[in-house]
Amino acid sequence: MNFNGILIGLGTFLIIGIFHPLVIKSEYHFGRRIWLAFFLGGLVFCALSLFCKNQIASILLGVAAFSAFWGIGEVFHQHKRVQRGWFPMNPKRKADYEKPAGEK
């Protein structure tokens, strides 16, 4: 039997499951500027994936890379969700959530 597909599926599920709350917590504590960390993390995971000799590990590092890249957009979407009141606002960064005049 070949368990590679199951392992990759499980790893992908776990990686995505980790990135979802990571985006929420990161935006709460650091705001939108955290996008750069997600970008750099994605680049690091890409590089590691390219040089990893184990095929399953390389695939999972690639999944982590593109989950980090996905996180960049999600940080900005999370900011809007906070503005709409769907998630709690960090009271220390209240000014970050004020909308410019004329924006809905």
Helix content: over 70%
β-strand amount: under 5%
How far apart are the termini?
A: 55 Å
> What kind of assembly state do the chains in view correspond to?
single chain
Folded structure, characterized:
- The chain has helices spanning 4-30, 35-51, 55-83.
- The model has no long low-confidence stretch (mean pLDDT 93).
- The protein has one domain (4-89).
- The chain is 70% helix and 0% strand.
- The chain has 104 residues and is mainly α.
- The protein is built from three helices and no strands.
Task: Summarize, please.
By secondary structure, this protein is an all-alpha fold. The chain contains 3 helices and no strands. α1 (4-30) runs parallel beside α3 and α2 (35-51) runs antiparallel to α3 (55-83).
Comma- or semicolon-separated keywords:
104 residues; mainly alpha; 3 helices; elongated
Secondary-structure topology with pairs:
Blueprint: H1 4-30, H2 35-51, H3 55-83
Helix pairs in contact: 1-3, 2-3
